[in-house]
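Journal club prep, shared notes

We agreed each person brings one worked example of a sequence with its structure written out as tokens. Mine is DUF2256 domain-containing protein. I'm keeping it raw so we can talk through how to read the token line rather than staring at a rendered picture. Sequence first:
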Amino acid sequence: MAHKKHHLPQKACRHCGLMFSWRKKWERDWEQVLYCSERCRRSHRPGAVLAGGS
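Then the structure, token by token:
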């Protein structure tokens, strides 16, 4: 059975700007999800930039 996931909502990560899609584990708190990964969540500081950026 093929799953079509193109209809899932998406957001931009507050830290890196990467677009990420809704996941089942975020079902109850999708509105509070702000980051694409745990790494972005931990490293986010106002004005912070990921290493390796220009």
